[in-house]
């Protein structure tokens, strides 16, 4: 009743999303080219798209070596020159290694427009060890977004344990966004944890984790989770222009 007396909040809507983040191409384990992904995002009305293929430690997913990155960056430049209606960003989904370091060094990470850092393996660490691992990653000044934060996969893998409040608080302090991974096999974070991230001062990014152009539809799942957690557009990173995102997050 108190909420109704104060007025209902303005919840996130599909039309609020300006940028499409977290997608994979044929450079790693996706099935569409950079140009195909960009064209699909442009047709869907997005102003920018962040290409985020896997880093080298994810060899099972075709993780990118330095020479692969150079080829992809050149292709992104070509697509941007040929497709002025949308901006293609040079991103990466880099592995958070077991000791909390990131899969590439600073000299490589500094060349990306933004960096999603995610745990892909190993998952067997205890709560204390995983918390330390995530806090260590968050201290890396190149990290922009924490991808699929609990690592869960429906009917495959339970979420790993960590101190949510400590990690979300550190993300807020470091200017790192916490991802709603909208892949329907993940939905991570789910709506139960999103208010904790918000209240700790962390911004939220909605990432489709798309591996083909049909994955653009995953955004619907992420938006639904944000709405279920009573999040408005002001809490979501990619409701903003890319210029605003750069200022909001620490990658300037």
Summary of the model, kept short:
It is built from nine helices and seven strands; from the N terminus they run H-E-H-E-H-E-H-E-H-E-H-E-H-E-H-H.
Polypeptide structure, described:
Helix 5 (127-138) packs parallel to helix 6. With 252 residues, this protein is α/β, with parallel strands linked by helices. It is built from 9 helices and 7 strands; from the N terminus they run αβαβαβαβαβαβαβαα. The protein is globular and about 45 Å long. The chain has helices at 2-6, 34-43, 66-82, 106-109, 127-138, 164-174, 194-199, 219-228, 242-248, and strands at residues 19-23, 48-51, 87-95, 114-118, 145-146, 177-181, 204-210. The mean pLDDT is 93. Strand 6, helix 7 (194-199) and strand 7 form a beta-alpha-beta unit. The protein has a single domain (16-248), classed as TIM Barrel (Alpha-Beta Barrel). Strands 1-2-3-4-5-6-7 form a 7-stranded parallel barrel, surrounded by 4 helices. Helix content is 33%, strand content 15%.
């Amino acid at each position: 009743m108190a909420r109704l007396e104060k007025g209902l909040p303005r919840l996130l809507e599909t039309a609020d999303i300006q940028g499409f983040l977290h997608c994979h191409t044929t450079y790693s384990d996706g099935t569409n080219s950079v140009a195909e992904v960009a064209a699909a995002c442009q047709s869907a009305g997005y102003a920018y798209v962040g290409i985020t293929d896997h880093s080298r430690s994810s060899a099972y997913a075709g993780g990118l070596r330095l020479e692969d990155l150079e080829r992809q960056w050149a292709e992104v430049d070509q697509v941007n020159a040929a497709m002025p209606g949308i901006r293609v960003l040079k991103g990466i989904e880099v592995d958070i290694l077991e000791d909390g370091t990131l899969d590439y060094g600073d000299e490589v990470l500094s060349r990306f427009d933004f960096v999603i850092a995610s745990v892909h393996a190993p998952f067997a660490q205890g709560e204390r060890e995983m918390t330390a691992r995530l806090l260590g990653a968050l201290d890396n000044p190149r990290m922009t977004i924490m991808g699929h934060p609990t690592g869960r996969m429906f009917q495959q893998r339970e979420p790993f344990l960590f101190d949510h409040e400590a990690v979300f608080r550190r993300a807020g302090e470091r200017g790192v966004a916490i991802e709603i991974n909208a892949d329907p096999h993940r939905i991570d974070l789910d709506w139960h944890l999103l208010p904790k991230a918000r209240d700790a001062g962390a911004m939220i990014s909605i990432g489709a984790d798309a591996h083909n152009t049909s994955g653009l539809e995953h955004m619907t799942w992420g938006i639904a989770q944000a709405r279920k957690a009573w999040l408005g557009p002001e809490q979501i990173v990619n409701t903003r222009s890319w210029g605003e995102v750069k200022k909001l997050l620490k990658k300037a």
